[in-house]
Design brief:
The chain is an alpha/beta fold. It has two domains: 4-151, Reverse transcriptase/Diguanylate cyclase domain (Alpha-Beta Plaits), CATH 3.30.70; 163-409, TIM Barrel (Alpha-Beta Barrel), CATH 3.20.20. The chain contains 17 helices and 15 strands. The strands form two sheets. Strands 6-7-9-10-11-12-13-14 form an eight-stranded mixed β-barrel, surrounded by five helices. The chain has a five-stranded mixed β-sheet with strand order 2-3-1-4-5. α2 packs antiparallel against α3 and α7 packs across α8. The protein is elongated, with a radius of gyration of 24 Å. InterPro entries: Cyclic-di-GMP_PDE-like, EAL_dom, EAL_sf, GGDEF_dom, Nucleotide_cyclase, Rev_trsase/Diguanyl_cyclase. GO terms for molecular function: cyclic-guanylate-specific phosphodiesterase activity. Residues 21-154 form the GGDEF domain.
Length: 413
């Protein structure tokens, strides 16, 4: 497999040779190739990748060059592209080529390419920027559910945002905030959820609702998760005694699919001297439907080491009883949209009570999100909910302040 440096060298060499004034870089992803490896074995997966590579090359002109760029990714250099329309014609040929299943695998397998296109010199003077902007166009195509997108110049602001966030992560300029999680039945602190906060010199206070989804759409989510994981554990390690407290760290579904994620978390726990039982990995319901088999494998390994597994925002997504039967969860976090309605909507209150009872019958604990007033808290206590969080119980605050305020006053568990 050719690496990024080699691809950049080939594109920059093409520019230096001055063989043509305009050309296109096409960033192409073929979703489904990785699944062939998982279902039929790595040998079949590699054969499918070879077939896809050959199919791409056959569908293009002899002067076009195709490079491998990951398990299901390719970079295509398209010389002599006079306009975006010419590049789109090449993309259309590739889409037509993949209309038939890859029939050289153990079972015919239909895959569909997704592409992002950048043009030289319109979208960048060199390989690095061209490839980044083609990747941004690819992300946009995936976000829209389209098969190809040409980079749009107004995305420059997004690129600046990307560069600044990446620099902030590398320089450790983000902050970890802890929001208290309360044991509702014993009325005592049970732990906290770790939340990332970013104050940008250019954009001011950036909401996590903006920069976390942005990170998930780019390659920054792995960097953000590693930063959150290590920074959280560094603060937790400052406790003289863990006192039964547990700290929740959010994991994106995209991170779970990355190789070595389990080893990274276990290694970080060992480095910081934090016991696995002091950590909860929070994942959203979408993880259950995106890649259930892989998620189960990864999370079961974490649970078997004593790490808690919480399904976040439960009750608003696509999780079903069948999913919960297979999923190695230890906790359900009931979404705040349900919790906020239990005072005014009797039907919703019955639903929340049913979720709590179901969870307990499945040996799962429950946490209510978004508790905003004492009446809601009292209702949840009566329903038997185990834990709760929300502004009524405590707002997010810098981790060091949280530990100074709460941890020294918590009695041993």
């Amino acid at each position: 497999m050719l690496n990024r440096e080699h691809i950049f060298e080939q594109i920059d060499a093409h520019i230096a040779a001055g063989e043509d004034e305009r050309f296109a870089v096409l960033m192409l992803r073929v979703p489904g190739l990785r699944e062939i490896s998982l279902r039929f074995g790595y040998a079949q997966g590699e054969q499918a990748e070879d077939m896809a590579h050959a199919l791409i090359q056959r569908s293009l002109r002899p002067i076009d060059r195709v490079f491998r760029a990951g398990d299901d990714g390719f970079v295509v250099l398209l010389p002599a592209m006079l306009s975006a329309n010419h590049a789109l014609l090449a993309g259309t040929r590739l889409i037509h080529a993949f209309e038939q299943p890859l029939d050289g695998t153990a079972s015919p397998w239909l895959v569909r390419p997704v592409m992002g296109i950048a043009l030289y010199p319109d979208h960048g003077p060199g390989a690095d920027r061209l490839c980044r902007r083609a990747s941004m166009a690819l992300d946009e195509a995936q976000r829209r559910g389209e098969l190809y997108v040409v980079y749009e110049p107004h995305d420059t602001q997004v690129e600046i945002f990307y560069d600044e966030l990446r620099e902030a992560l590398d320089a450790n300029r983000l902050q970890v905030f802890f929001q208290p999680i309360w044991n509702l039945q014993s009325d005592r602190l049970a732990g906290a959820e770790s939340l990332a906060r970013w104050s940008s010199p250019s954009h001011g206070e950036v909401s996590p609702a903006n920069f976390v989804p942005f990170s998930e759409q780019s390659d920054l989510i792995s960097v953000l998760t590693r930063w959150s994981m290590n920074t959280t554990l560094r603060h937790v390690a400052s406790l003289s005694s863990f006192q039964g407290l547990r700290f929740a760290i959010n994991f994106s579904p995209r991170v779970l699919s990355r190789p070595g994620m389990v080893e990274q978390l276990l290694g970080a726990l060992e480095i910081w001297g934090v016991p696995p039982t002091a950590v909860i990995v929070e994942i959203t319901e979408t993880t259950l439907v995106n890649d259930l088999d892989l998620s189960v494998q990864v999370l079961r390994r974490l649970r078997d080491r004593g790490i808690g597994i919480a399904i976040d925002d439960f009750g608003t997504g696509y999780a079903s009883i069948a999913y919960l039967r297979q999923f190695p969860a230890t906790e359900l976090k009931i979404d705040q949209s349900l919790i906020g309605a239990i005072r005014s909507e009797p039907h919703t209150a019955k639903l929340v009570r049913a979720i709590i009872n179901m969870a307990h019958h499945m040996d799962l604990t429950t946490t209510a999100e978004g508790i905003e007033d004492p009446v809601t808290q009292a209702l949840l206590v009566e329903m038997g909910c185990d834990f709760g969080q929300g502004f009524h119980l405590g707002r997010p605050q810098p981790a060091a302040e949280f530990l100074a305020r709460f941890a020294t006053t918590v009695p041993p568990a």
